[in-house]
Amino acid sequence: MAVEINDSNFEELSAKGQLMLVDFGAQWCGPCKAVSPIVDELSDKYGSEAVIGKVDIDESPDLCEKFGIRNIPTILFIRDGEVVDKIVGAVAKEKISERLTALI
């Protein structure tokens, strides 16, 4: 299961030095509901190699502002506090998995 990431715990999680896959979405967003189970599945598979989590944009406005989130779902791949890759919109599991494994 993916970790819940928010304004309060982001810095602590990013300080681990691991790659982060961060899914920005909202409960009211239809396409986000399609991506959410994919992120959970990837967390189960790669959770020991990367921090994989979700941000509810309604509850974490500071993170949305920090990373310039304008559309959801948006998946950011973050290393050492810097965005190294980005996927905007609902995409197939294979595409997300390929990007993740290339960066681990």
Describe the protein in words.
The structure is a single chain. With 104 residues, the chain is an alpha/beta fold. The chain has a single domain (3-97), classed as Glutaredoxin, CATH 3.40.30.10. 38% of the residues lie in helices and 28% in strands. It has helices spanning 10-14, 30-46, 61-67, 93-103, and strands at 3-4, 19-25, 50-56, 74-79, 82-88. The protein has a five-stranded mixed β-sheet, sandwiched between helices.
Q: Tell me the span between the first and last alpha carbons.
A: 18 Å
Biggest sheet descriptor: 5 strands, mixed
SS-based class: alpha/beta
Helix content: 25-40%
Highest CATH level, the class: Alpha Beta
The helix/strand order is: EHEHEHEEH
Relative strand content: 25-35%
Q: Please compute the radius of gyration using only Cα atoms.
A: 12 Å
CATH topology: Glutaredoxin
Give the count of structural domains: 1
Oligomer classification: single chain
Main-sheet strand order equals 1-3-2-4-5
Number of strands: 5
